[in-house]
Amino acid sequence: MDAFAYGNLVDSSTLSGGSWDAAHPLTRLQLRELAAYALSSTSSPADTQVIIDHGSARVAQCFAIVAHNITDPAATITVNRGTTSGASDVYAGSPVTCWPFSPLDDDRDGGFFAIAVVAPRPTTARFTTIAINTSDRVRMGRLFVGPVFAPAIGVTRRTNDWLPDFSTVERTESGADWVAARPRLRHPGIEYRALSRAEGSLLQEIQRTHGTTGELFYTANIFDRADTQQHGCLAMLRQMSPLEFPFFGHNSVAIGFDERGGAP
Question: At a CB cut-off of 8 Å and minimum separation 6, what does 236 contact?
Fold first, then answer.
């Protein structure tokens, strides 16, 4: 089921746990610039975890690491939620692979492929712990923790387009090509055709509070982590789309996303 997460809780939370380089502390994860990263002091699992204190019990279901350097195919991620720091009494996640998707030629590019975990259900807790187990020091540019908008009747149409390639090719007088290769960003679109009135109301509030500048995380498929890793991304709404009323008591809407770029 195509869905997206909204209301990133990270920026309003207090981050602690692990051991992080003094020049690249955890507070870097609260900056919008993806190139400003946090870097763990060592590769020890005790040093590569983040404890997020939301200040009060908050709802979350999607947990994502963006703009990272985790390329180890054996690396795992574990998400726990609890009523006290580091606890798992609300939600105890199991270690799962950081790489459910296998990129072409094993190109595990953490600047392009996020690491995401979508829990089976939303939970309400004050503390969230994200723990990484990998073979190298961990670099992360952004965290996303938030609830998921996943209507009872899912997407009826999905497109996975690309923004125009930012690369350029110029020709010399001899015909030789001068290539400047630049990133390609995702440009997904989805269409919901049967939202309940409550779902339509929530979507309108997401549009009002996020506009075309607020962060979302497009999860692509909340039941398939490989699909989410290949197609999902940190994004913004491309444009505000009005709710339509195709039949009594239901709404329909098309949504477009633009991936956020700038990973180191």
Answer: 210, 212, 213, 214, 215, 216, 257, 258, 260
